[in-house]
Amino acid sequence: MAARPIQTKDQLRLTVERTVQFIPASDVCTYVYPEAFGGLSHWGIDTLLTDSALIDELQRCRPDWSDARSGEFTVREQADAVWTALFRDRIPYSEACRSVLSVLQRLGLDTRSRDLQAYRSFFSGIQASDYTDLIFKLSGVTTVCMTNDPFSDDERQAWEQVDQLDPRFNTSLRIDKLLNAWDTASARLRAWGYDVDAALNGKTYREIRGFLKYWIARMNPLYLSAALPADLADREMTARAQLIEQCVLPVAGEANIPLALLIESGHPSSSALGQAVRRPGQSALSVVEALCAAHPEHKFMCSLGPDGEQGRLTLLGRQYRNLHLIGSCCEAGVPGSIEETVSRRLELLGADVTPWYSGGRSLEWLLYKWDQSRAMAGKVLYDKYSGLMDTGWRLTEDEIGKDVAGLFGESFWTFLGRPNPATAFKA
Prior knowledge:
Layout: H1 9-22, E1 25-27, H2 45-49, H3 52-61, H4 67-70, H5 75-88, H6 95-106, H7 116-124, H8 128-139, E2 141-145, H9 153-161, E3 169-170, E4 173-174, H10 176-180, H11 182-191, H12 202-219, E5 224-228, H13 239-255, E6 259-263, H14 272-277, H15 284-294, E7 300-304, H16 310-319, E8 323-325, H17 335-349, H18 364-390, H19 397-416
Parallel strand pairs: 1-2, 2-3, 4-5, 5-6, 6-7, 7-8
């Protein structure tokens, strides 16, 4: 890229469009796994068609297809039902439907044929390793971060078989079950040989810290993460709060990795714990703010569902240097609402945010979501840069490239204090 100033709006538009397509991206939060993880690695047309958003859509238009009924059928049979109901009997213009068609098109398949069996033939004829390479290449993604749950039996079994990870797949240590369901988690820990009590005490804290340290050593995660209900009370005196203070933060600090808080949509929590701790006017963002203020030596990341308090979270990101904002924790977020949030964050935080991640549960989500994110980046950035040009300011191509690189992962790696692997793995 050159340092020459951009003189016209047409030149600006072309530069931005070219840059957002060229710059490689790091997907900092996904649910995709490499081939070595066996049954946890999901890809293919039947996986695409049985995404939860499409199953929900199927159940809306087919009331006879209840949750219980869908569980009676194989993945292939459910995919057949989705294809018939949503792609043949209806016009597939929902966001979830368009995502499937966009993936098929990007893979070079003819969406006009509406031939589900032909699509299945394509996927059955390609090796998992070759397909993984293809998706990384087409999406321009260099690395992803998995969501790794040590309380999942399937995941624990998979880790017993994994000797060396595909270097494009990083890890995050998910601790939802530890924080949000201590009664169940404590029983699991005891079964695995950890001397914990149901009542939290010094001995139990030491054992939990040992458990976390073991999995950090095993996984080498980029961060710890936990999904939280949106209606947590400020500094709640619950098992969750004590575990964060006594176990999670000390271990994360020792390992020099952040704690990522993924806050669910803003509807009230239906859990007994959520009901017990709810207070008027309080939310999980109050907990995030209190943690950032009380622990400036620790790093935190936060993601919020699309209907959450995005403006407030953006202001917290500006106020606390130890807080890094990432994407939206709802993979089905409406593009328009995400675009508005990204625009606001650029105004207040510049490129020191990571506005997009796929949150995908199948490999194809890397392709669809990053096509969508690159298009959104081009639109939002052109608007911002165009406003700058109206003041007489002139940008250069390398300045725009640096900006986009920050938004597509460089800021994330800088926050972690680690080098960006994009320099080693080219898309």
